[in-house]
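hey
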């Protein structure tokens, strides 16, 4: 409570923070359903100890909010906005341990101005609870180490465990903690402390549900997030596109000024460590220990691997505190101006949808698709609906439709957590189906003219219907091919 009062009373910074957050809150009702919202809502509606592609924390959060406030797109967005707002407040508390009042103001404005916070406020992903528990973990570890409050080792362990239960990236918290203690002359002795080991022990205990689910399911999630992802690195091939794409993503998320500040101090500290063997002072080292492994670690992969834009997000917490130490007023002003321009453009796009998005990763058209699909089901009775794009179309239709919509496991293709919902596909034998296939590039309103060959293995006959064309403001913006498939036959893998 004291932190929140101090946060509110800090007028110079709070006006900017509240301004950015108010803008984001105003946009919430205009945001349509994103496929990620629908997929992790599906998590929450099918409660489990863990899930195929991620731990379940985001699903639990969405379940709690929808149980309290009801199922709606706004409720999902409000859940993301609330948790992210708590992350901002927690960040303020953490940053206050390292920065003077003036630099603290700059740091909190830097965080609030990023597109990272906007994405986390609008879109349900595991990163939403991850960054919250990541920040809480650092608060607890700071108090345990620098203020010598022993019980915060236990609280830090619990927070690290909850971060892991949000996303596997949280393993970098333990790596950062151990790295800090090894490199710190003053605090290296804590490696022998029973409190340190208790912290690690509790962090593991809290993650037990994730481990147990993996044990029950042949460690499917761990395999998916490790060996199956890294298999694409087996061929060492330099890709400038991946490297510059990562730079573009990070400039977008951080806003260019902050990204350049990140690059500057990263180069400075790494150069000192490598060439001069100079280790920073303890508190700075603490911040770097939770920044360098995540930010520089993932960035080092970009020349040979497509690193997703959100993988580096946890590093922003301590990275922005480090940026607050060195950014000047002139650069901060430029950051704010660029951020305001970017956010205004984003607001115009969200409300008026002026620029078509050639992707299924959009908030446009899903409800309209569900309405048209319901009409087709009434016309083609005794037909179930499925799609073939991992999760996006199926998850979105499931959110809007009363009847269950299936994924690509219908045709024996891996379908992420849809494979673990316990569906008896054999019960669909002899039924007909409506296969919905998104035309991501949408260049015309013509039929596709061909269909997925795998459909022949499961249906007697496939005929293409007229495509579903979605219009927004009288403008054609999305297209879905539709196929009517008769007499389904489930087959085991």
């Amino acid at each position: 409570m004291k932190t929140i009062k101090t946060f509110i009373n800090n007028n110079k910074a709070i006006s900017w923070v509240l301004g950015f957050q108010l803008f984001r809150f105003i946009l919430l009702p205009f945001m349509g359903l994103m496929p990620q919202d629908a997929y992790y809502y599906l998590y929450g509606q099918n409660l489990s100890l863990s899930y195929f592609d991620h731990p379940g924390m985001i699903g639990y959060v969405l379940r709690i909010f929808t149980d309290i406030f009801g199922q709606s797109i706004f409720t999902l967005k409000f859940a993301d906005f609330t948790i992210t707002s708590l992350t901002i407040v927690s960040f303020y508390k953490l940053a206050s341990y390292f920065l003077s009042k003036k630099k603290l103001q700059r740091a909190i404005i830097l965080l609030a101005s990023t597109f990272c916070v906007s994405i986390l406020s609008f879109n349900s992903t595991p990163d939403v609870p991850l960054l919250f528990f990541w920040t809480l973990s650092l608060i607890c570890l700071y108090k345990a180490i620098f203020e010598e409050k022993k019980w915060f080792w236990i609280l830090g362990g619990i927070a690290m465990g909850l971060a892991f239960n949000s996303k596997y990236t949280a393993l970098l918290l333990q790596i950062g903690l151990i790295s800090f203690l090894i490199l710190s002359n003053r605090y290296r002795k804590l490696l022998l402390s029973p409190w340190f080991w208790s912290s690690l022990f509790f962090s593991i205990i809290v993650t037990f549900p994730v481990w147990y689910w993996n044990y029950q399911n042949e460690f499917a999630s761990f395999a998916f997030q490790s060996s199956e992802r890294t298999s694409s690195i087996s061929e060492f091939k330099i890709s400038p596109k991946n490297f510059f794409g990562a730079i573009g993503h990070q400039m977008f998320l951080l806003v260019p000024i902050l990204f350049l500040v990140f690059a500057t101090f990263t180069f400075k500290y790494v150069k000192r460590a490598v060439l001069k063997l100079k280790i920073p002072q303890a508190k700075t080292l603490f911040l770097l220990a939770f920044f360098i492994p995540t930010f520089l670690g993932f960035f080092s992969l970009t020349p040979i691997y497509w690193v997703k834009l959100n993988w580096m997000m946890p590093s922003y917490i301590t990275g922005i505190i480090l940026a607050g130490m060195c950014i000047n007023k002139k650069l901060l002003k430029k950051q704010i101006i660029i951020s305001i321009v970017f956010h205004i453009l984003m607001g115009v796009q969200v409300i008026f949808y002026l620029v078509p998005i050639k992707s299924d990763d959009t908030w446009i058209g899903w409800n309209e698709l569900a309405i048209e699909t319901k009409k087709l089901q009434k016309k083609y009775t005794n037909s179930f609906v499925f799609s073939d794009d991992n999760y996006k179309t199926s998850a979105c239709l499931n959110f809007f439709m009363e009847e269950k919509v299936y994924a690509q496991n219908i045709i024996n293709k891996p379908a992420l957590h849809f494979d673990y919902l316990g569906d008896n596909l054999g019960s669909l034998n002899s039924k007909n189906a409506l296969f919905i296939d998104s035309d991501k590039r949408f260049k015309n309103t013509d039929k596709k003219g061909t269909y997925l060959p795998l459909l022949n293995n499961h249906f007697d006959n496939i005929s293409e219907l007229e495509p579903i064309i979605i219009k927004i403001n009288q403008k054609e913006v999305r297209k879905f091919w539709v196929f009517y498939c008769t007499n389904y036959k489930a087959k085991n893998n």
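The CA atoms of residues 70 and 290 lie 37 Å apart. The first strand starts at residue 383 and ends at 387.
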